[in-house]
Design a protein that fits this description.
Glutaredoxin
């Protein structure tokens, strides 16, 4: 796998529905469905968020991690974390949701830029190894998306990378012990 296909890390200013911040690196070994939305996006409210709720229900007994990303790139004054909190409550959203970090350099939030999302709704399916398996703008067909998620969940969990502290390893490189050569 090329480093170019690895999922970029999330840049989140505030989290909802989770006791601790989430990270792509910290979820390695799980399949991740990352969906970006805006609470004032008609396609998000009418189509993608109901689809996400179906995904959560259908894959509830798996190790799929669904993560919502509130990516505000317009109407910034109207879509504050306080309004988002009420939206999450009213729509009974239960998955962890992060507020995509604004950096002041652009109206487009950091994670949205990192993933190359063109608008909302957008999504990325990330494999157990951290590679982006599928990237979409808009809403995917339920059956196609379910099949993609099912195939990703069926993939084996990658073997753990060698620890830097393991015998014979230094700076992430493991040498064959002289006695074994």
């Amino acid at each position: 796998m090329s480093d170019l296909t690895l999922a970029p890390e999330l840049s989140v200013s505030e989290w909802f529905n989770t006791p601790q911040p989430l990270s792509i690196a910290g979820l390695r070994g799980k399949v991740i469905y990352l969906h970006s939305f805006q609470l004032l996006c008609p396609g998000c409210v009418a189509e993608s968020l109901p689809q996400v709720r179906r995904i959560e229900r259908i894959f509830a007994n798996t190790d799929l991690q669904v993560i919502g990303l509130h990516t505000v790139f317009e109407h910034h004054e109207a879509m504050t974390p306080t309004v988002l909190r009420a939206f999450i409550h009213e729509y009974r959203l239960t998955a962890p949701i992060g507020v995509d970090q604004a950096d002041g350099r652009s109206d487009i939030p950091v994670t949205m830029r990192r993933y190359g999302f063109r608008g909302t709704p957008s999504s990325a399916l990330i494999g157990r190894d951290g590679a982006i398996l599928h990237h979409a703008f808009g809403v995917d067909d339920d059956i196609a998306l379910g099949a993609r998620i099912g195939m990703a969940l069926a993939a084996p969990i990658p073997a753990a990378a060698p620890s830097d502290k393991a015998e014979g390893c230094a700076a992430g490189v493991c040498a064959i012990p002289a006695s074994a050569a």
